[in-house]
Amino acid sequence: MEHEISRPVNEVTPPPPFHREEIINIAKPGCPTKCGNLRVPYPFGIGSNCSVNPWFDIDCDTSVDPPNMLVSSRNEFHLIDISESQIQIKNHFLTSLCGNRSMNFTLDFSETPYTFSDANKLTHTGCLAVLEGLSHRYVAPNLTLNNSAGGCVSFCSDDDQFRGRSCPGNGCCQIPIPKGTVFLKSFISCLEDRWGNVKSKPCSYSFIGGKDNLTFEADSGLSEGAVVLDWRMGTENCSQARNSSDFGCHGNSVCIDADAGVGGYRCSCLKGYQGNPYLPPGCLDIDECINNPCHSTAICVNNPGSFICECRRGYRGDARRNGAGCFQMTWSKLSRGLDAWMVFLVLYTVFLILRKFVRKRNLKNRRKKFFKQNGGLLLQQQTSVQEGQTILGNTRIFTAKELEKATDQFNESRILGRGGQGTVYKGMLSDGQIVAIKKCQLVDDHKSKHLVEQFINEVVLLLQISHRNVVKLLGCCLEEEVPHLVYEFVPNGTLFHHIHDDSNGPEFPFSWNNCLKIAADVAGALAYLHTATSLPILHRDIKSSNILLDEKYVAKVSDFGIAKSLAIGQTHITTFANGTFGYIDPEYFQSCQLTEKSDVYSFGVVLVELLTGLVAVIPSTIEEDAKGLASHSQSAMNEDNLDSILDARVAAEGEKEGEVAVAKLANRCLNFNGKERPNMKEVAMELENLRRAQMGSTVDTRLQEDSEIFSKGNYDYGWTSTKEFGTRSTSASDIHPITFDTI
């Protein structure tokens, strides 16, 4: 049920309050307020133009005693009483069956503002007879009718018929009338087949009666009492009617939707107000102070809709007549009260100081605990960093307060994406730099240890890397329950998103030249990881969703959570296979021996993604199971059918020779035998040569630069960062700067 409150509009000063006994705003000006002793409030009315519409007209005949009142509608009925939500009418509706003579009655309120209340029941008295009732339910707001029917059978002996006793019982049965019913038809039929000729039985009757009381004389066939009807305004509920010009609720009233799914509404005064809510200015404030609800030594102050009691000066208490009242303050009591108050203030001040000290100490201990729990000691051992100090130049440890301010208390509107390791937020540091902050997820102790190891592993490895095509780690925060990593913000999402999401439109310049450049950037970064760092680094999770694109669509490799480094002279690591299905090296998966060729295989899958526009795992059909993109592309290459899998954009813009060369390179990278695959340095060189041939360049300064750095073992490129907010991917796989999936 919906309630809407109406208040006076542009009211400068409230109208004066009035007594509860005072009767105001009962009827429209100039219209009678009573018919006999019965008060007739608006929207009802006696006489012309005194009601809201003809359904509420009251014809008052005072020539008889008591006066006779008729409600003018399609069927006029005699009015007994009017209340805030109901009216009562005389009960002269009777159905009878006497031998072959029968009489039925029908009540139809389907086009009126009246419906049956659930205070009514259809009562049947008689012997071996069936009462059948057909009713229609009124359903708002489209005013459709919903049919329903009911009936009951009464049994009794010839000499023991119902005579004003309780019902149901011998010779009597009842049918409830649902709230909201607008149409009722009642008729009686005999039971003849099984019980023989019952037409000689006494007469049977049915009539409308109340639930809890029943008065009926079987000899005369007369019933007394009233039929209770609910009434309402209009056919629209409060929210709909409020927008209409003839909305009936005025100031300081509440609009109440009609019950039982019936359209329309009623108005009621707010608590503390009285009057007729259907007539302007609406309900007025009641002056509760007239009845003096306060103590004799208190002052009553009337407020709109309420009142307050205040003790006079020198007294204290709740000031209520029925409460503690007011009692006089003596100087000794006041002095003791002041002394107690001063002691309380001193103790409270000491308490605040001690609580601040304890909270500060607990916070410090808590941060030390989390620093140790999040691998801070291990990080100190591997990086020689002390808590609160800067790590390797621009990479530093952030405080929790800094990151909370940067992300607006980690507001959900700042989320870039979620993954297996945690949630990534966009943030702005105090110097205005836009960053990506990964908040590791809170897990159980067993998983927590594993995630902390990945976290420390990623920090330690990224501290060794300085390359323009590897996402830059700016710092971390260890003093919260879960560790946080802070990266440079890469605004243009993941390569996966741009390859496979058709909603990108023309914003991403997906040309063949760009594909070659992205492939060459990633290959150069991986070659750097394998050959130019102090210890070779194996990424283990190269995939298009871990390749980010900055504002100039420069590729950046991310997610080093499961990366491993090789010791000097070491060729492989024996470890459980880890990575993403569709990209993981099958040889590594079978042997659990991780080599640099495992990254080569994963990069080969990314190359095929760029060529074909297909995902790494091709969805299954009814006829066949799902299969990997690697085997699918190798089958096409072996059958010399490259055109069948090329992406339309690549086929339209690229040169045939270049496409074939990249496809062959990818095929070599995807060789099942890792020893037959090229290394990443060879892949990077070949891609650079293809770019040079594609662009018609005579000098490849980038290739020369990379060759020199590879040979020197010192590979350090400048960083690309952004100060502007960019768009983010909404795909589950586009979490940046880092996510991983395991098998």
TrEMBL record:
Catalyses: L-threonyl-[protein] + ATP = O-phospho-L-threonyl-[protein] + ADP + H(+); L-seryl-[protein] + ATP = O-phospho-L-seryl-[protein] + ADP + H(+)
Q: Which SMART domains match?
A: EGF, EGF_CA, S_TKc
Q: What is its EC number?
A: 2.7.11.1
Compartment(s) where it occurs, according to its Swiss-Prot or TrEMBL record: Membrane
Record Gene3D superfamilies: Laminin (2.10.25.10), Phosphorylase Kinase, domain 1 (3.30.200.20), Transferase(Phosphotransferase) domain 1 (1.10.510.10)
Task: Please give an example of a GO cellular component term from this record.
Answer: plasma membrane
- Give the keywords, sorted: ATP-binding, Disulfide bond, EGF-like domain, Glycoprotein, Kinase, Membrane, Nucleotide-binding, Phosphoprotein, Repeat, Serine/threonine-protein kinase, Signal, Transferase, Transmembrane, Transmembrane helix
Query: GO annotations under biological process?
Result: cell surface receptor signaling pathway
Where is each EGF-like domain found? 285-318
* Protein kinase domain segment(s): 410-690
Transmembrane ranges, per UniProt, are: 340-358
Looking up InterPro entries in the UniProt record yields: EGF, EGF-like_Ca-bd_dom, EGF-type_Asp/Asn_hydroxyl_site, EGF_Ca-bd_CS, Growth_fac_rcpt_cys_sf, Kinase-like_dom_sf, NOTCH1_EGF-like, Prot_kinase_dom
Its top-level enzyme class, in one word, is: transferase
Q: How does it sit in the membrane?
A: Single-pass type I membrane protein
**Which GO MF terms are attached to this record?**
ATP binding; calcium ion binding; polysaccharide binding; protein serine kinase activity; protein serine/threonine kinase activity
Record bears the keyword Transferase? yes
Q: What does this protein do?
A: Serine/threonine-protein kinase that may function as a signaling receptor of extracellular matrix component. Binding to pectin may have significance in the control of cell expansion, morphogenesis and development.
Name of this protein: Serine/threonine protein kinase
